[in-house]
Amino acid sequence: MGRNSKKRKKKNGENGDMDVVSGDESTDFSSVKSLEMESDKYAIFKVPNYSRTYPENGGNFEYIVFLESSVSEQPIGNRDMMSLSNCIKRYNKGVKQLLRINKYKIGVIFERPGQANAALANKNFLEQYKFIASIPAAASEVTGVILHVPTNLSNAQIYSAISSSKNIVCVRRFMRKVNNDGRITEEPTKTVSITFSCPVLPATDSVDLNSWRFELRPYIPPVKQCLRCLRYGHIAKFCKNELRCSICQDNHKFTECQIDPKSAKCVHCSGNHISISTTCPVKQQKINENKIEVEKKTQKFTDLFNSTKFPKLNSRPDNISSIISSDTVMNLLIEAVVKIISLNKGNEKPICNQSIKDILLETITKKRASK
What is the distance between the alpha carbons of residues 177 and 188, in angstroms, rounded to a whole number? Predict the structure, then answer.
């Protein structure tokens, strides 16, 4: 299903550190010739026949499977809720809860990943009730970004030459829109995103491309904003709301607007800019929220022990010293030590961590009982 993670030996490029691979003898691209003939050089490369599934050791408390109607004229939200619940539980084991996402989508929550994966593969159930099943990408995949990748490489060639400790399922090069005398074209950049079929980035935080190590950086997804209704959280492809102009907020396309964009009014903050502008403070807030979510997801275990995240305990040593130096505690310790030495001399009890602990507890307990 995924990219073979086994390391392969490759020769370094002969023309400097940026000549990673160029189709010469150092790398054999014959296996990807047919893939490139079928699509554009910079089209997104996805592993054939790959489908998302929950990892068995995902560590979640619940696992959601989205169900949508395969017939667009019959939204799943219009079906009878009770009969829908009965048919889902009849054909799928481990159903914990059902959740209405919107008119077109519901969520089926399972307690175990295996139960959720079984629902994804339940073809008889899905075909009979005309459902499409899916799971959120964030639950089973993670995307990282690498920089300085030569633009002469196609996405299929990058996939063929790359290796990692985790399975790679998608390679996408970032494209830049360029205005050439009124004609908008796309040009490749040297930034490439790599998607892995696991919920966290590889522990090494890097991938190898023809023996060159490329550092993996967390991918921060763009803010979802609908170009139809201008709201956040979805895209125009799935929007059923009324059309709204990003310049004047009326119900027409922005290309038909008669108002000068310099006099635009943002629908979100009422500022003097179009409603999809990156300068909008509302959009900036959404971008920051995305960054925070990515930081949480990519946080390493060692980050939990960052000294700056813990309060300083300046008074702790003094408190401990004052407690130990008190007469009561000192007498208890001396009594326990004397008992340990006497027991050891008589070979009644060997000295070890557990025996010292037992004697200390016994001494303290007797002291409390005598009060």
Answer: 9
3-state helix, strand, coil in the chain (%, to 5): 35, 20, 45
**Sequence ranges of the domains in the chain:** 30-50+141-218, 63-139, 224-283, 318-370
Contact 161, 3 (CB under 8 A): no
90-127 residue pLDDT tens:
999 999 999 998 888 999 999 899 999 999 999 999 99
Q: Which of 167, 145, 128, 171 is nearest to 298 (CA)?
A: 145
**Strands of 168-180's sheet in order across:** 45-46, 168-180, 183-196, 142-146, 217-218
Which residue stretches of 222-312 are H helix?
Answer: 281-297
CATH, range 63-139: 3.30.70.330
> Cβ distance 173 to 149 under 8 Å?
yes
How far separated are the first and last CA of the chain, in Å rounded?
Answer: 71
338 torsion bin: left (phi>0), alpha (psi -120 to 50), beta (else):
alpha
Q: How many CA atoms lie within 13 A of 347 on its CB side?
A: 0
Query: Which of 48-62, 214-228, 330-344 is predicted least confidently?
Result: 330-344
CB 114 within 8 A of CB 72: no
Residue 116 main-chain phi, psi, to 5 deg = -65, -40
CB 158 within 8 A of CB 125: no
Indicate whether this model's pTM tops 0.70. no
Distance of CA 334 to the CA centre of its chain: 56
